[in-house]
């Protein structure tokens, strides 16, 4: 028995060691020289991104035989889990492609990733507007550089709209009016993907932001909406359902199961004639329809022509590990990936339309900037956009939005109760994670 | 008082201990270590990255008022209570057929195991959609026999039904464990029973079932554990919906751990799951009167 | 007459069991929109080049390389799992020893914890031991009877073999290991086959543990390669190629099962699981 107790105690010690000792390593300061080394670079994506990135790495390795890049990549499934575990063990790759909300979930105090302002000589920061650089700042510390900027836009199936004889809506009232017209034929002018984390809530937020000028969640993680705003947003969502503009959650679930909208037979056969999607990932909807069917529509305004409230965010960022041994080399490679003209041509739009001016120009000159993503980008540029807070993108927050939308759609609670629950949950949650 | 160890003559009292050495070492390194560290983490507010704070039993008191947790626990219990008996019954019946020595049975055995090989293949997710969406095959079948169609995915009870169907359909491993046992029953038993004028069905209850006691208990325990820890089926098929009606404890722990970065809370929840399974298996052992005999 | 009924039943059941596989094979030739709109398995057209692309993968290596990796994990793991589980189960089922009750309870308890909570501590441990990005975290645990369900299964089957067998052998001069190898293991051979097959199939499908432990692409097992191209967040991808890869990936599993299935019921019949 004694033995057991001893062994258990020993195991306990081991545990406390590993659980607390993960973050003791010192941050390596830049030394101004480029040494011979091997760097790990990780990203997730699909085949097009893998191929393009591997090509760019090959170009780098040719130019810099002393700094070898080891690629670590995979699909999106499980990738957050992998990176979370690596970060908690301090064994993450030197350079990482990261999601916007990871800045706050992994680097609350700005120390979770390398402070890039120290590497300003290696990374050409003049490539980016001040606003875009700010995306990567946490707690005043530059943690990541935006690879591309994206916003959600409206995309319609032109065939169905022609068949019904309808114009793409310009205002919210246009949109609401379309419901009846489409509904009489059993069609829908638009639908909001329930599975992709709050698409429905996103549209409602835009509507309220346009009306009130208030930002839903501020960049530093404060709730900007009042409870009344939240209720108004939920009411607007309900109005969309009631006017047959979008399917109810129940109908959508019955018809599609849990399939994403771009995999839904109802979307593929044209019965669902519109989607709200990030410009950077609308490609998957295009692939489901035959070519040229999907078109970017106007971003909606109110009846007086006020078209504010639409939002943008960095679709991806690059960050450098706080534990890297080779900050100079890592920064040099990161800069190559971001704003080398040659690399940009190889990378194309596999990570969206580049935020770096050199990279964007390079693509423009090679005629690679076409398609829906670009059209949507141009539409957004004409507007006075707001920046999405990384806090708005957190998985737990998306959970709140989905719960509220689902409950009011099933009429499990009324919008006032749902708004109250959401308001309290958000306040409570934001306070907890910023502690 | 000196304890007597009931071993065959010539066997030393440490022989058994020596034999289970792999388990003991494995337990210390691969089980006790993560268990203890998980228990300690359950007493903190660790988020996977940040320095953690010791918060005592706060995670556990939070569970008392966390309606999401209450719902997940109830869903999981309901799921287990419905699935486990159905799966045991179905696996046993199929195993009886698969045990028949008829031509081509080997091919059928392989075919009936294929669902279990597919695991969580994308094909299954899409097939389930073709089956159970509103225009799907299940509804066409219902309409053909004059019944009203069902909104499978959108209805709480029906969506629970379709993940149970998925797990019933992936019954292969349970069936094989039954098959392993069935082949051990000498055919002479049945022949003797036949002479005594005992029919097939009575033969099953009089001979087969009693001889399968051990294996039924084995499958019961394994299936209870698997069902209580269920994650994959609802994750793939229903995403826990509608209105969290298929959101299991396994999904909640996963989300808290990796999606919401509440590592401390997730570990606390895991210990509650551990206790729930221990209690259920304990009761089952008592009820089947096997526990003492084993230990 | 009775036989016909059984065949009809088996055939209907068989179709239900195998249809998704047929559909999967058919769908590997379909376009994205056809995949999501047609439950019928026969594709509109056949273009085998998708299999060539699938085999090549997007990485520097072909699927053959990743099959090799997977087998480099599965073969030692299966062997380790069988040996360690059999010894442990034998000890529990046939011997009495100090602290047996305690160890048995610890053993049962080890099955009740959800595997997911062990991932992070194990990662940190292997990281400390410098074993990340090797197959050690994926194979070595099997040496220590960590798959509780196997041990539990074997215990139940050992208990079904009459103790008189052991005693007879002991009188003939066999020691404990000889009894296990020559008397008991032949009796439970089908169970050992089952355990090996389960280890094989589960390891083929295992995703999260290798994803977290292995970071070099050239060391990935097949299960990671199968999901390498699927990115629901991005610009969409060719579904058929992913499906074709998973068809290829299923071949070893189905073959192994088909070869092993006879062994589930054959073997030396050793009088009853009474007990």
- Strand % of chain A is 5-15%
Count of domains of chain B: 1
Query: What pattern of helices and strands is seen along the backbone of chain A?
Result: HEHEHEHHEEEEHHHHHHEHEEHHHHEHH
The best one-word shape of chain A is globular
Uncertain ranges of chain A = 1-24
Percent strand of chain B: under 5%
What's the level 1 CATH class of the largest domain in chain A?
Answer: Alpha Beta
Task: Find the CATH superfamily of chain B.
Answer: MetI-like
Instruction: Tell me the number of structural domains of chain A.
Output: 2
Count of individual beta strands of chain B: 0
What can you see in these coordinates?
The complex is a heterotrimer of chains A (435), B (295) and C (275). Chain A has 435 residues and is α/β, with parallel strands linked by helices. Chain A folds into 2 domains: 37-150 and 314-381, D-Maltodextrin-Binding Protein, domain 2 (3-Layer(aba) Sandwich), CATH 3.40.190; 151-311 and 385-433, Periplasmic binding protein-like II (D-Maltodextrin-Binding Protein, domain 2). Chain A contains 18 helices and 11 strands. Chain A has helices at 2-20, 47-63, 79-89, 102-106, 130-135, 158-164, 172-183, 199-212, 227-242, 249-256, 265-268, 283-288, 327-339, 341-347, 357-365, 372-381, 395-409, 415-434; strands at residues 37-44, 67-74, 95-98, 137-138, 141-142, 144-150, 152-157, 274-278, 294-296, 311-320, 386-387. In chain A, the strands form 3 sheets. In chain A, strands 1, 2, 3, 6, 10 and 11 form a 6-stranded mixed β-sheet that branches. In chain A, helix 9 (227-242) packs across helix 17, helix 13 crosses helix 14 and helix 17 (395-409) packs antiparallel against helix 18. Chain A is globular and about 70 Å long. Chain A starts with a helix and ends with a helix. In chain A, 53% of the residues are buried. Chain B has 295 residues and is mainly α. Chain B is 71% helix and 0% strand. Chain B contains 16 helices and no strands. The longest helix of chain B has 32 residues, at 67-98. Chain B is flat. Chain C has 2 domains: 1-47, no CATH class; 56-271, Orthogonal Bundle (MetI-like fold), CATH 1.10.3720.10. Chain C has helices at 2-27, 32-37, 49-56, 63-94, 100-110, 116-128, 136-139, 148-160, 163-171, 176-187, 189-205, 208-213, 222-226, 239-260. Chain C is globular and about 70 Å long. The interface between B and C is large, with 101 and 100 residues.
